[in-house]
Specification:
By secondary structure, this protein is α+β, with helices and mostly antiparallel strands. The protein is built from 9 helices and 14 strands. The chain has one domain: Jelly Rolls (Sandwich). The chain has helices spanning 14-30, 43-57, 61-64, 117-144, 152-156, 180-183, 235-240, 257-260, 294-306; strands at residues 5-7, 33-37, 80-82, 99-103, 169-175, 190-193, 199-204, 210-213, 219-221, 228-233, 250-252, 264-271, 286-287, 319-320. The protein has an 8-stranded mixed sheet with strand order 1-2-10-7-12-5-4-3. Strands 6-11-8-9 form a 4-stranded antiparallel sheet, with no helix packed on it. A two-stranded antiparallel ribbon has the order 13-14. GO terms for molecular function: metal ion binding; oxidoreductase activity.
């Protein structure tokens, strides 16, 4: 299985957009991941956000913790820092050697955000460009799925950027040099997981390590390709389409000793529907009880931050509609 590189300049005209929409949906049905070139997010914005992340993560942990991501038992956590070893996407026993800062433009609590000052302008600009790209991708997906309302998915994500109505975040990730003697034999960079958003857009800097699961439970590398972004489907679009679009499992490993000595940096934009947006089956052959995604998302956070391990996060069990 190869992750294809699609040309997003096809979006610009309505004729070629239809072709692109079919390519996007076909790839998300089969692979679940795709690279995009000519994606329209300015390289300068990506470089500035990355440069700011270098400066931000270089600060003492105690300084970064002044603006920690809040505990998440009862509400969406919003912006903030998460230190090494706290968030665990795979299994509670497996330490993930990464630190992160999540950013929602409207969520910068007064008096706390000072340690993140360097990030605010570059991440605001990049957030806005990613939101625009996400809206165009949602448009393509709706066209490719042949939905009656081609703006259906965009309409469900109207509140991106407003923490009171939507949990979409732009996340900078910093993976320090990886030393299993220090972190333990089972530690990894980022455990196997699916994203629990609707769609993710990922910018990788020069050090690789991301791997994507293929049909036979085999993982293949998804290396950084200059000038491209990587796009993948999260659980919520998989639910929405009753499994037609795939939320593909992925992970980040420090695969070789040379890579282990290097810092890996990446930036992910995780698009989520508005809190009050009802998700219902988009496939007439299946039915599930329509509901917003809030409780599902909170269950995933509870699992990742408080290690309440469970197999079933309580959402969307499509049943075949009898003919
Ligand atoms: O660093 C990466 O490339 C992957 C990040 C990721 O998969 C995530 O944060 O969900
Ligand atoms: Fe992910």
């Amino acid at each position: 299985m190869e992750i294809p590189i699609l040309d997003f300049s096809l979006y610009e005209s309505p004729e070629s957009r239809t072709l692109l929409a079919d390519q996007v949906v076909h790839t998300l049905e089969t692979v679940g991941f795709l690279y995009l070139k000519n994606h329209g997010v300015p390289a300068e914005q990506i470089d500035k956000a990355d440069g700011a992340a270098v400066k931000y993560f270089d600060q003492e942990t105690s300084v970064k913790k002044q603006f920690s991501r809040p505990s998440v038992m009862t509400e969406n956590p919003g912006s903030g820092y998460c230190e090494i070893g706290i968030e665990r996407l795979y299994q509670s026993g497996v330490k993930e050697v990464k630190e992160t800062f999540d950013f929602i433009p409207s969520d910068l609590p007064e008096g706390k955000a000072e340690s993140a000052t360097v990030l605010i302008e570059p991440l605001t600009n990049l957030f806005n460009s990613c939101a625009e790209l996400a809206r165009k991708l949602f448009h393509c997906i709706a066209l490719g799925l042949k939905l009656a309302n081609e703006r259906y998915l965009e309409d469900k994500h109207k509140g991106m950027g407003n923490r009171n109505v939507n949990s979409t975040t732009l996340r900078v990730l910093h993976y320090p040099p990886f030393d299993s003697a220090q972190y333990g034999e089972t530690a990894t960079r980022l455990g196997e997981h699916t994203d629990w958003c609707s769609m993710a857009i990922l910018f990788q800097r020069d050090v690789g390590g991301l791997e994507v699961e293929t049909a036979g439970n085999k993982f293949v590398p998804a290396p950084p390709i200059p000038g491209t972004v990587l796009v993948n489907i999260g659980d919520i679009l998989q639910f929405w389409t009753c499994g037609r679009l795939r939320a593909t499992t992925h992970r980040v490993r420090a695969v070789d000793s040379e890579q282990n000595t290097k810092v890996r940096r990446s930036i992910g934009f995780f698009a989520n529907p508005d809190f009050d947006a009802v998700v219902e089956s988009l496939d007439p052959r299946y039915y599930f009880h329509p509901e917003p995604t809030g409780e599902y998302t909170l269950n995933r956070f509870r699992n990742a931050y408080h290690y309440q391990e469970r197999q079933d996060f309580g959402f969307m069990k499509p049943q075949r509609v009898s003919e």
